[in-house]
Amino acid sequence: MSGMQNERVTEIAPGVFVLKVEMAYLPDLIYPILLWDEGKREAVLLDTGMPGNGLEIRRAIEAANVPLDDVKTVLLTHQDIDHIGGLPEFLASVKHSVTVLAHEADKPYIEGERPLMKLNQETMQGLLDLMVEEEAKRFQMLFADPPFTRVNNILSDGQTLDLLGGVTVIHTPGHTPGHISLYLHASRILITADAMAADNGRLTGPNPYLTPDMATAIQSLSKFANLEIDTAVCYHGGIVRESVHEQIAALISR
What we know:
Elements: E1 9-13, E2 16-19, E3 21-22, E4 29-30, E5 33-37, E6 42-46, H1 54-63, E7 71-75, H2 81-84, H3 87-93, E8 99-103, H4 107-110, H5 121-128, H6 133-144, E9 153-155, E10 160-161, E11 167-171, E12 180-184, E13 189-193, E14 197-199, E15 202-205, H7 214-220, E16 231-234, E17 238-240, H8 244-252
Parallel strand pairs: 6-7, 7-8, 8-9, 13-16
Antiparallel strand pairs: 1-2, 2-5, 3-4, 5-6, 10-11, 11-12, 12-13, 14-15, 16-17
Helix pairs in contact: 1-3
């Protein structure tokens, strides 16, 4: 069952909103998720885009008709700049305190105690090659002083959040050490983050260029094998509804 749909948001199940956001700096779309338990007046934002995406994500939340005051939690699925970068801007745009959640293994990177894992010349050059010259200059300046934020609470594998009938945390390392995915029991939705990507409704597996440990990343997909999944949502590529189990099995067996 699905509900609201407009140019910024698609409600794929009650209280489950897929936000459609143009990524800052790069010619690509990203799909953060907003989970809203209206009865509890509590919403959780999953990931925040690049630096410069914070206000656009706020506008997408407003387009979902979810009160900003209900967004009391931001859950960061992992440390990559296109997931954590918009958080400072988003936090500055709201008037209330927000709790930030992440896995322990990625916490020191998100908080700036360690440099972001993919902050290296090879990865940077690959991204810069995709940008126009002016954007590339701004991006280089950004990475000289990347945004960081404090993580208030730690998430662990198997932990279930009391929201929308239960949201279970699945530790899926490989793309980063502390990468997590989420499973929504009531709606049978798998939120993959970057454990998988999608292309025109087909799952493509983790991006090998941006996944330092592909063997572990593929092994992590086996954690999805026994879940009852009607819909998967990838941060890169969006919504996948057809033959999700079969597609995951094919990726594992490659």
